[in-house]
Amino acid sequence: MSVKNLVVNLFKLHGLAVRSDGAKYLCELLNPLPKDEHDEWIEKVIEAVQKLPISSTLISKEDIYKAAQEVGTAENDDIENLLQVVDIYKVPKLFYNVERKKFVLEPVRARDLHGDASDKAGVFRGRYSIVYQRTCNHDLFRKPVIGNVDEDNKKFGLIKVEFLLGSSSRLDDVVTLGLLTQLMEGQHHLEDDTGAVHLDLSKTKFHTGLFTHNCYVLVEGWYEDGILHANAIGLPPPEAPSSTRALIGNINYFGGHGTVCSKNIPRLQQAEQENKDAMFVVLSDVWLDKIKVTEKLRTLFGGYAQFPPTAFIFCGNFLSSCHGSEQAPDLRQYLTSLGTLIAGYPELLAHSKFIFVPGPNDPGPSNIFPRPPLPKYVTEEIRKTVPSAIFVSNPCRLLYCTQEIVIFRENIVAKMCRNCVYFPTNSDDIPAHFAKTVVSQSHLAPLPLHVLPVYWGLDHCLALHPTPDVIIIADKGDSFTTTHNQCIIMNPGSFSKTDFSFKVYMPATRQVEDSQIGDEDV
């Protein structure tokens, strides 16, 4: 059988028809390969074609080209390409398609940085659609199949605000999902995509979490005379990342190379387990203008020189204080000195990446998120000395093999605590409350825009849906490591303000180690 007939027949077995130019192009790709491998490669191309957003069973040459590129990318992943730094400004945006009843990727389009009024409304509409659809899919809220009602397994129905507002009589056992907000001073409201209702919190029991203004909550209570009396308030239930990905499909929702989800690429899964020595060293508040910090960094590099980590992640601020107009030239000088220090360790220079995340006080256009990388003027000298230095945005995303890592340098824990409607009584476990809140909100910053400004058209860059594997919150507060919904949430703490402590993450075992550079190590 000729190669072309083999291509046509195998596509037919999968219910697809391939145009003649597409079949010819695929034959040209297969000719250099051994004949006994043709079947396997055609099947891989067909599998990649089925993952494309095709609208017809007639496959064109362009479809074959895209699928072949995807197969080639997956097959050519090697140890040098296992770590991807995702451009935060090119992160795909998920939205809920009502007709298809699933989350799909929004078509790529040019975005105005500041956006318009519709983009501002889209910020909260987009966050709400994620939380609402995820809650509706939870076992407690999923509608039972007709004729299969289990009396012991009670289901709850979510009631929209407009239904409450349209009711003239008392309603008991109300469960509503909405945005906890303050439309009038001193009065709390619950708002969803249909309206807003006055909320009475005088006798409310709050469950675990940090209930901040502008976070989405589940309210259980009773409604009468235009007021929703809340008996209890809790956070929306999370959804297992594997379940979310199964509903979304095998698309690249996280960003980076390729069009398919890295979780489903066997070569990356294998490489992740085989590369047991891989590690990420995470430091925050690395004040390069302090001699003591430089000495500790020299000790750090010397200690890892024989066993180079996959990456050093340095989070700002990179200076101990702001210097006005002299800040950028000073930081340029200190980064240049750091580059000279790193160059003294050839093994690290050859095998490790050096990732720099800007802090709140570092040079940049503003404190609106996402923040761009440090200016090129500041970094051009260290780039020459350390080619593996990567300057990223804040927040940023890393993709190591199949693991999704999100890094956010902001004092977000303190800001959320200050903006709580109700502060937890067991305040010793704030990390657990914080972790539950950000995961349940599927967002890094569930706060009012005046507290933590976000570019309206880029709010999806701070989304956490599906829940990633690791969230690094570089906060100036106490360090912590906790887990929630199969996600590791960690804070390395301030390297300069504390006892020079930092975190080390091992992807192969998914473990986090607390580390410290003592005076005896110098």
Report on this model:
By secondary structure, the chain is an alpha/beta fold. The radius of gyration is 26 Å and the shape is flat. Strand 7 and strand 8 (195-200) form a beta hairpin. The longest helix is centred in the N-terminal third of the chain and has 20 residues, at 117-136. It is built from 14 helices and 24 strands. The model has no long low-confidence stretch (mean pLDDT 90).
Note the topology:
Layout: H1 3-13, E1 17-18, H2 20-30, H3 38-50, E2 58-59, H4 61-75, E3 83-86, E4 94-97, E5 102-105, H5 117-136, H6 161-165, E6 171-184, E7 187-192, E8 195-200, E9 205-206, E10 211-212, E11 215-224, E12 227-234, H7 241-248, H8 266-274, E13 280-284, H9 291-304, E14 311-315, H10 327-343, H11 346-351, E15 353-357, H12 376-385, E16 389-391, E17 396-400, E18 403-409, H13 412-418, E19 420-422, H14 430-441, E20 470-474, E21 480-484, E22 487-491, E23 501-506, E24 511-516
Parallel strand pairs: 1-2, 8-12, 9-12, 13-14, 14-15, 15-16, 18-20, 20-22
Antiparallel strand pairs: 3-17, 4-5, 6-7, 6-11, 7-8, 10-19, 11-12, 13-23, 17-18, 21-22, 23-24
Give helix % range.
Answer: 25-40%
| Largest beta-sheet characterization | 6 strands, mixed
Our measurement of the CA-to-CA distance between the termini, rounded to an integer number of angstroms, reads: 71 Å
Strand content: 15-25%
Multimeric status of the protein? single chain
What general outline do the C-alpha atoms trace? flat
Count the strands?
24
Radius of gyration: 26 Å
* Uncertain residue ranges: none
Secondary-structure-based class equals: alpha/beta
